[in-house]
Amino acid sequence: MMKSKTVIGREGERMAQVFLARKGYRILDANWRWHNFELDIVALNEETLVIVEVKTRSKGYLVNPEGAIDRKKICRLTAAADSYAQHLEKVYPVRFDIVTIVTDGKGGVDIEHIEDAYFSTVL
């Protein structure tokens, strides 16, 4: 039986959290939601608030995981990050990263962390 996109996505997000934690990131929130906004992972890397979009795909998928983040998605992530930052007691510089996870269906996983994947002029 094949796993649903939702299950694959959640598994990828858990792998990304472990990956980032091992790199020294402090995970503040995962799957943060507020109204129509969602952030996959919000973490602190030293004194930088890092908004992480996680993209999980199976090997052989036609579009690279990071290619699934278009201008519209960036605008939504930026707005969500702004909403999140308003709830913090401290002001942090913000960085937007992507973690891509490609599975081969046999237990093999390739994880790539793209720092400063895109920039926002809103925050």
Give the domain tally.
1
Q: Round the Cα radius of gyration to an integer and report it.
A: 14 Å
CATH architecture: 3-Layer(aba) Sandwich
Helix content: 25-40%
Largest sheet: 5 strands, mixed
**What is the CA-CA span between the terminal residues?**
43 Å
Integer average pLDDT:
86
Q: Could you characterize what this model shows?
A:
- It is built from 2 helices and 5 strands.
- With 123 residues, it is an alpha+beta fold.
- Strands 1-2-3-4-5 form a 5-stranded mixed β-sheet.
- The chain is globular.
- The protein starts with a helix and ends in a 5-residue tail after the last strand.
- The model has no long low-confidence stretch (mean pLDDT 86).
In short, what is this structure?
It contains 2 helices and 5 strands; from the N terminus they run αβββαββ.
Topology:
Layout: H1 5-22, E1 26-34, E2 37-45, E3 48-58, H2 71-86, E4 94-103, E5 109-118
Parallel strand pairs: 3-4
Antiparallel strand pairs: 1-2, 2-3, 4-5
Descriptive terms for the model:
Trna Endonuclease, Chain: A, domain 1; 2 helices; single chain; 123 residues; 28% helix; 5 strands; 5-stranded mixed β-sheet
